[in-house]
Amino acid sequence: MPRGLAPRIIYLEMNKDDIRENGSISGKIEEFEFNKQGLIAYRLRSDNRGAPPFIAYGKGSYFEAKKYDKKGRLTHHYMEDYQTIQQDVTTYDAKGNRSSLVHLGKEDTLVSIGFTWEKGQLVKSKVIDHSVASKTESQGAANWDQTFDEQGRIIETTYEGIRILHSYETLKDSLLTTMKIYHLGVLASE
């Protein structure tokens, strides 16, 4: 969207043909609003909880609102559905790298993540789980560490006896990602 234009709302329509009957059901399933930068600022969609694909402002819908800084970087992401409310607040350093992410629940901080950058590459992130961070220093808190490769992809995540390894293989125009999860040193899933 060109700069300077007012935000627009776009409605998506869907037709659903039923094999057992003639005809179709038509309904609005998503609604978007874009900001002046052309980025999604608002989104409402049906989560199709057993009903025809119609948006409802309430139970059975999924709502998102996003705010960006002047450079188009996402700074606040609010999400709500029939069960939960959550928010992500992101900050950036002077070079434009994401320096922290705070994940908020309905009433409290759930997780804070700090990011470490070297030579323009994300090399590590550290997560502190605030649901256990109130424990005393001697009891410790749940820590989550991640390391990344030169392309900024996660290669290893560790926390509380769990180790997750990611490997990547390029296949023509696709990327095959293999994730192995170890629990207490034993392969649990791949």
Secondary structure category: mainly beta
User: What's the mean pLDDT score?
Assistant: 75
| Structure annotation, total helices | 1
Radius of gyration: 21 Å
Largest sheet: 14 strands, antiparallel
H/E order of the elements? EEEEEEEEEHEEEEE
Could you say which overall geometry the principal axes of the C-alpha atoms support? globular
> Numbering strands along the chain, what is their spatial order in the largest sheet?
1-2-3-4-5-6-7-8-9-10-11-12-13-14
Helical residues, percent: under 10%
Uncertain segments: 132-141
State the end-to-end CA separation: 42 Å
Summarize, please.
By secondary structure, this protein is mostly beta strands. It has one helix at residues 130-133, and strands at 9-17, 24-34, 40-46, 61-68, 74-80, 85-92, 98-104, 109-118, 121-129, 143-148, 154-159, 162-171, 174-183, 186-189.
